[in-house]
Amino acid sequence: xxxxxxxxxxxxxxxxxxxxxxxxxxxxxxxxxxxxxxxxxxxxxxxxxxxxxxxxxxxxxxxxxxxxxxxxxxxxxxxxxxxxxxxxxxxxxxxxxxxxxxxxxxxxxxxxxxxxxxxxxxxxxxxxxxxxxxxxxxxxxxxxxxxxxxxxxxxxxxxxxxxxxxxxxxxxxxxxxxxxxxxxxxxxxxxxxxxxxxxxxxxxxxxxxxxxxxxxxxxxxxxxxxxxxxxxxxxxxxxxxxxxxxxxxxx
Length: 251
Ligand code: G3P
Ligand code: MG
Fold this sequence. Notes:
The chain is α/β, with parallel strands linked by helices. The protein has one domain: Alpha-Beta Barrel (TIM Barrel).
């Protein structure tokens, strides 16, 4: 059974537009929206001068035409980089957007947001605090608040302290034995798990603890259907072409 108090759509586009667009860009978000998705996940971190912007890796190397560590680059340097061409020439000129730009685009397109706090090394607390403070302000008038998540316990603790009103989900790759204690301490509404780690029994235990579950990254429709049957509340997918917004209505 899905959680009654979970306000989020059941299908979430991973990194904005899954595999159909350069990850963590405005083009990705627009792609997700064009395919009918109602919620997107993206990765947020700090530039050297503490601007919150979107990037998955610690460096800009894989997903732009630049080189270097995000923590060492100022945002006025980052914004000059092409974050689209590596994916496809038709995305040339895409930038790594700020959280402010992303919030504006999500609101304009009617998209709910899962803001994954992705700190660079040794910046967990600062990143968690600054992302949460900014998200609270940017979405202050929104009916559906952004869902903050992180693999970093320290980042999510800082987010809790900075903006306790924003819902939080703790991300796990392997779900540890003390998942209950960690999510309780962080006052989480949800647990976000690698779908490969989930079993029907573990899903039931997590739900019995009062948590909603978001499973990532689910690209096989059959697996998505099974997770839905077990009671997983939402899935995050790269394959928004196969697993659309109405996937579970049709299942
Ligand atoms: O939030 C779910 C998923 O995005 C976590 O993994 O590495 O794609 O950020 P990653
Ligand atoms: Mg992510």
